[in-house]
Write a structure and sequence with these properties.
Elements: H1 2-17, H2 20-37, H3 42-49, H4 53-60, H5 68-78, H6 82-85
Helix pairs in contact: 3-4
């Protein structure tokens, strides 16, 4: 029972740090920054992870929340942990 409560508490904390739109924006920024750092075009990334360009663009602009499966694919593509993509280090409004 203790583990279930911990998961619920962590989810509550996560959801209270930022709104869904703010989290989408942070992820979009992370995706775009990584792509640009590798000098890749959006189409190249979309092709590499097996999705349509228009779908990828909705993630990079923050219009759509990036599904975990896509985050995993991006993590493998860029060889970085998902935490980097979603900018977990920025998920605290109290970071000073």
């Amino acid at each position: 029972m203790h583990n279930k409560k911990r998961v619920i508490d962590m989810e509550t904390i996560y959801n209270n740090l930022y709104t869904k739109d703010e989290r989408k924006k942070l992820t979009a920024e992370g995706i775009k920054t990584l792509r640009q750092s590798k000098n890749l075009q959006q189409k190249e990334v979309a092709d590499a992870i097996g999705i349509a360009l228009t779908t990828y663009q909705t993630y990079e602009t923050g219009r759509t929340e990036t599904p975990i499966e896509i985050l995993v694919r991006l993590s493998f593509l860029y060889d970085v942990p998902i935490d980097i993509i979603v900018q977990r280090n920025n998920l605290s409004k109290n970071n000073d």
